[in-house]
Design brief:
homodimer; Rossmann fold; oxidoreductase activity (chains A, B); 7 helices; alpha/beta
């Protein structure tokens, strides 16, 4: 199987890395803090490696699993090292008080990230409506994706399917605005009507 | 059972009115065009009535089931006739090309409507993430609600439950921003990943 690179070492990075390793991919974990990357790689199944922060990632698919507030600086640190990559933006753009979104009006975190990656890279929004601990439990969850480039979207869709999730395309990258709002709604639902963070959305079709 | 007033006579008005009548309420249908209100009332079960557009609605709960673009003028036409009412805003705030939301940045259609209703009225966002034809088919669908006033929210929650739906509170009325984005996402999902408008979201809890 091919290599998937994950930049980040937090809860979501661990959850996605866990499912990715279990699916048989080689997972390259990269963090600004090499010790954190190593710790996550050590927790994963055979085949996990660590990469050098800022160097060209081993995977053609690179999962940007860092807080949104730090995403722009990570992309800047990588610069041309992201040439030609399919970048999965999983960021949650909720404000610190979890009542609103920090992305600019009429845009989304994903669109802002797309503006600063190399022109040959493609950004796909995905995973941001799933809670890490729910994702880590397994199960065929629904995973919404938004992207402009059809090939990048198809590759991420195949990757998500291979993790045992159901990819659901909601449209172009501008639809990341709705997915990021949905991420915030999941938080609102957890704190209010559901009363638990053990929640996942699924779509009844037909 | 008590009376529920519905202002509007389109597909969503008919779908909600149908379930409301079936649940045993008296449904008061009101439209700018009395013939349309009468036609919808005639289609409903025994107990449906029509009301006079702009006059005090018979129901304590008033469902504003008109296009968002016309909602402000309806509220203005009613003025103080909405004093003390619980107003359910079901509007879809998608742009005509279905790619973005028309509500002002940092606000929602529901919040804009809340600004212009009488101070004694309470606005609750609900039903906007459900497609009318799916709602009309029946079934225990998930219905997300957002509102600031706890009593108004509790009343709408009880009403929604009585229709055989599962009410799910996502938070204060500012969360209508996320529900309206979710409404747009449902359209994106229907046009893309699902490939059908026969879709509904549900939440796996726990």
């Amino acid at each position: 199987m091919s290599t998937i690179s994950i930049i980040g070492s937090g809860g979501m990075a661990a959850a996605i890395a866990g499912r990715t390793a279990k699916a048989g991919y080689t997972v390259e974990v990269v963090s600004r803090d090499p010790a954190k990357a190593q710790a996550l790689a050590d927790k994963l199944a055979v085949g996990a490696t660590t990469g050098t922060y800022g160097a060209i990632p081993a995977g053609d698919i690179v999962i940007l699993a860092v807080p949104y507030a730090g995403a722009a600086s990570v992309v800047a640190d990588y610069g041309d090292a992201l040439d030609g990559k399919v970048i999965i933006d999983i960021t949650n753009t909720a404000s610190p008080d979890l009542t609103s979104l920090v992305s600019p009006a009429g845009s989304s975190g994903a669109q802002e990230i797309a503006r600063i990656v190399p022109a040959s890279a493609h950004v796909v929004k995905a995973f941001n409506t799933l809670f890490g601990h729910v994702l880590a439990k397994g199960g065929r969850l629904d995973a919404f994706i938004a992207a402009d480039d059809p090939q990048a979207k198809a590759r991420v869709s195949t990757f998500i399917e291979s993790l045992g999730l159901r990819p659901l395309d909601v449209g172009g990258l501008h639809m990341a605005q709705t997915l990021e709002a949905l991420g915030l709604m999941m938080i609102g639902l957890a704190k209010n009507g559901a009363g638990t963070w053990d929640i996942a959305l699924n779509v009844d079709i037909g």
